[in-house]
Every structure is written in structure tokens, then in C-alpha cells.
Amino acid sequence: MTNSLIQKAELLNALHVPGTPLVVTNVWDAITAKIVSEAPGVKALASASHSVSNVRGLQDGEGLSVDEAIIAARIITGATDLPVSIDFEKGYAADAAGVTRNVRRLIEEAGAAGINLEDSVGAPKAPQFDIATAAARVAAARAGAEEAGVPLVINARVDTLAGGGEWAEAVQRANAYLDAGADVIFFLGLGDEDKVKRALDEVNGRISVIGHPGAVPLTRLAELGVSRVSFGPGTLGLALAALQRAATQLTALGDYPDDLGFPFEI
Question: Can you say whether residue 72 is alpha, beta or left, with left for phi > 0 and alpha for psi between -120 and 50 degrees?
Fold first, then answer.
């Protein structure tokens, strides 16, 4: 598995191209991983911890144990041959040594080709670990990947703006995480085109953003030079909205929705 996983990690990294962003439609279980992986043009997958938790009746914010998180990741990776980036929250560990241990387990036991790693202490996006501690946790994740022998793609999240913090600190954090071994910076709070441009100018590496209604359009994000776009729990919301609409229509003795006949098999 190691050689195959190395190739997947290398492919995942290569797909993060400024101006030709990797678009990952986030998944949360085996069937969503399979269905999204079969969509035309999809080259890699990413999980969303919020969705993984919510479908189990849990709140986001490491409501799962590390063992449960690794099992959930293995279910997703086992449903597709594509590279998968796992939203690993804060590494499910209180210290850097624990992050190293858990990231190695995630690679070896679940076959993750990449991870998201958060820099907030709790479930809300504030407060954050101090910069040195957060950078050390990124370095710890890289150490876990090196122990596993896989060039894991680390998408390090910067929550500063989303938590009401200052721009200068957000950029400082982003560059510190890149120096510590991150491959891509998941920069939250880039709500308009000017902020996206500024981040691209001031961060010394590739930028990942989240897309949602009202955000900078995908085509413009590509033109600006973003390297990755994801949608977090928004894709679960999309699925639930469609299900609720169908339930309303069916309960009212309406027509059968065409999507009721959508073919699927795990």
C-alpha cells in the first residue's frame, strides 16, 4: 500500500496548481465518496469533519475519538481509488507528540494522502494556539508523515480572520505554517476579491479557500491564482436541502422527483 499511497500523495500535491485549482466536493462516508469520485472531472476527494460528525449525531470539534475518526477516514478512502484528503481537525491530540502519533496512524491505518489541520484551540474559530505552538503542531504532522514514509499533503488552516483577528497575524501564521512543513494554507475569511489578492501576494505558498454562495466565484478564484477550493459542510447542506425538498413534495402527494431514481450501489 505504501507505494500506491506515495503516488496518491504526490498526485494530490501536484493537483494544487495556482490558477488551475483543485476543486474538492467534500464527502463524509462511503457512498458520498463513491458517487463524487465517479463525477466527470473529479481527481481527488476531501472529507469535512463537520459533516462526518453531524451524520453520526455529534457536534463538530473533535466529537469523535481519534479511533473513531480514523475508522471514518478508512471508510471514505476504502470507497475510492482517488487520493483523499482527510479533515483531521486539530490532530485529536493535546500536544505535538500526539499529533505526530495520530497522523502516522491516519496514514498507515486509513490511507490518507492529505490532511487539513486546524489552528484553533476549541470548536469555534477562536482562540487559536499561539503561533509557535500551532507551527509546532504542523511540524509534528509532517514528522508523522515522514515516519510513515508518505509525502502527506498538509493543508494548514488559518482561522484568524474567521475568529475576528487581525490580517497581519493571519499572514504571519500562514508563513510560519509553511516554514513548519505545510504544503498549502487553508486561509479562512477571504470574503472578497481584494482579500484573496492580498493573501496571494503576502503568503509565501499556495492558498486554499472555501467556496459558498456569495463568495468570490470559482472562475475568478482560478484567475486570481488560488490552488484549491473546498466547500466544507456546505455539501452536506446541499444534500439535505434536496432531501427536504423531496420529502415536502412527496408528503404533499406531488410528482415523484426525477432524482428518486438516481442509480447508486456501494
Answer: alpha
pTM above 0.90, yes or no: yes
CATH code of the domain containing 163 = 3.20.20.60
Position 59 scores a pLDDT of: 86
For 23-50, b/e burial (b = at least 16 CB within 10 A) is bbbbbbbbebbbbbbeeeebebbbbbbb
Q: Looking at residue 2, what is its pLDDT?
A: 79
Burial bucket for residue 84 (CB in 10 Å: 0-12, 13-18, 19+)? buried
Does the residue 14 lie in any domain? yes
How many domains does one find in the chain?
A: 1
Rounded distance between C-alpha atoms, residue 235 and residue 212, angstroms: 10
Contact, 33 vs 45, CB < 8 A?
A: yes
**Which domain range does residue 30 map to?**
2-251
Q: What confidence tens digit (pLDDT) does each residue in 82-99 have?
A: 999 999 999 999 999 999
For residue 258, being part of any structural domain is answered with: no
45 is a domain residue: yes
Side-chain half-sphere of 115: how many Cα atoms within 13 Å? Answer: 34
